[in-house]
Design goal:
By secondary structure, the chain is mainly alpha-helical. The chain has two domains: about 1-45; about 50-214, Fumarate Reductase Cytochrome B subunit, CATH 1.20.950. It contains five helices and two strands. It has helices at about 1-40, 50-75, 80-110, 125-150, 170-205, and strands at about 155, 160-165. The chain has a two-stranded antiparallel ribbon. A hairpin with a 3-residue loop joins β1 (about 155) and β2. The radius of gyration is 28 Å and the shape is elongated. It starts with a helix and ends in a 9-residue tail after the last helix.
Length: about 210
């Protein structure tokens, strides 16, 4: 009996030591994570922001897509003439810049370091956002490819050089025009959805999502 009673305090002591060691390990792990975060920030890595290259691509494409969408729908309303021809060439020139940058943007998306996930956002929401972003990339490709291929007989790039396109005007370019208009409409809807999601996170969830891309 005495032997049993003597073992009980010893067992309790071991339990307290084990608990203390576990708590110390957790604290040490948290401190290590914080030190790693500080070291990454010293090396130019901000865990809560997209890197400068990603931000450059994002805002260039945002400006280009918004301009091209407005200009494209304006072209449909303008009668033929020098103003329409000028706007059409300018629209294609801006699109050509995006065509050249698009492969670089896709490549950078796969090699860049992603920022930390937003606090308070579920895995399901993150998965949905990822799928929407992939759909945006696919739609941008469809818009740019069909927009280039549907132009018959080439165009002038900012009045500097002639860009040759592969097809003359005919049934194929007409079909590509239909694809282009449909993909533009889809892209406009996806952009609106993206903006609404940012507004929700910024103003309702208040997780300051906008600063990640500034």
């Amino acid at each position: 009996m005495n032997v049993h009673m003597n073992q009980m305090p010893q067992t309790a002591s071991h339990s307290r030591i084990g608990t203390g060691e576990a708590q110390a390990a957790i604290i040490q792990s948290d401190c290590l994570d914080e030190r790693i975060a500080r070291q990454l920030m010293k090396r130019g890595r901000d865990l809560d922001h997209y890197d400068g290259v990603a931000r450059f691509f994002h805002w260039v494409f945002a400006a280009g897509i918004i301009y091209a969408s407005v200009a494209g729908y304006a072209l449909a309303e303008l009668p033929g003439g020098p103003e329409r021809d000028f706007l059409s060439r300018l629209n294609m020139s801006v699109a050509t810049v995006l065509i050249a940058l698009f492969p670089l943007r896709v490549w950078w998306k796969f090699v860049r370091n992603e920022p930390r996930a937003l606090a308070g956002v579920s895995d399901a929401q993150n998965a949905l956002a990822h799928r929407v972003h992939i759909l945006i990339y696919v739609t941008v490709f469809a818009v740019l490819a069909s927009g280039f291929l549907m132009v018959p007989n080439g165009y002038s790039f900012f009045g500097l050089v002639e860009i040759h396109t592969p097809f003359v005007k005919g049934a194929l370019t007409d079909e590509l025009f239909v694809i282009h208009r449909a993909s533009c409409a889809l892209l406009a809807g996806l952009v609106v959805l993206h903006v609404l999601a940012v507004v929700k996170h910024q103003l309702i969830n208040r997780n300051n999502v906008l600063r990640r891309m500034l």
